[in-house]
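Format is chain and fold; as here:
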Amino acid sequence: MKLLGRRRQAISRAEAQSFDRLAADYDRLGELTGNAVSDWLPSVLPAGQRSGGNALDLGCGAGRHAVLLAEHFEHVDAVDLSAAMIRLARRKRPRPNICYLESGILDVTGSYDFIVSAATLHHVPDLPAALTHIKDLLAPGGQAVLVDTVSPRPANPRWWLYGGELRKLARNLVRRGRADAWEIFKLATGDWLDHRVSDRYLSRQQFEETYSAAFPGATFTRVGNAHAMLWTRPAVD
């Protein structure tokens, strides 16, 4: 049996990390498999509709979380370093109160009442600097919700990830049928598998120690297979 997850030619880690080459496939995989963060995020958003204020989605991808923010805030800035992701978000998830911007985290300026980042911060080269900058972007009384993957080992080997997708394929063939199961498998073992192999993670303990250093008194909770930090900036520092 040919392993679909193996590439004919080695690629660099920088190439694997780029979302420009897998934007459409990544978004389609999300449509098929769902997202634990998207299901959980409404529970920590302000009650009611359009209560005012500004929100920021850092590493917005194709806009799945930005559209949730847009239901609760007057204005949303959604930024991503990938131009392909920003184009996809503008095409598939436009809202009159969302501004999609191609930008790095450290280039963002302004003051925000709510900041969310999901599955993004493990990509940044200087995490403490990024966390400090995010804190500086929060308005008094503003809330930061930062969610990321954690792992007991910094990197996961290809064979382990591929084996996990084989197990999911077997389950999905029974639960979802042949067409969906094979589409999910092909998307998860193509360019996206290369990306996951190139990822580097914090352990749960490292995550809490690193984030607490920037956000003293933060609380933490598990969201699916990820870990989330919640912190509210005091009204008066």
Notes: DSSP finds ten helices and seven strands in the chain. Confidence is low (pLDDT under 50) at residues 1-11.
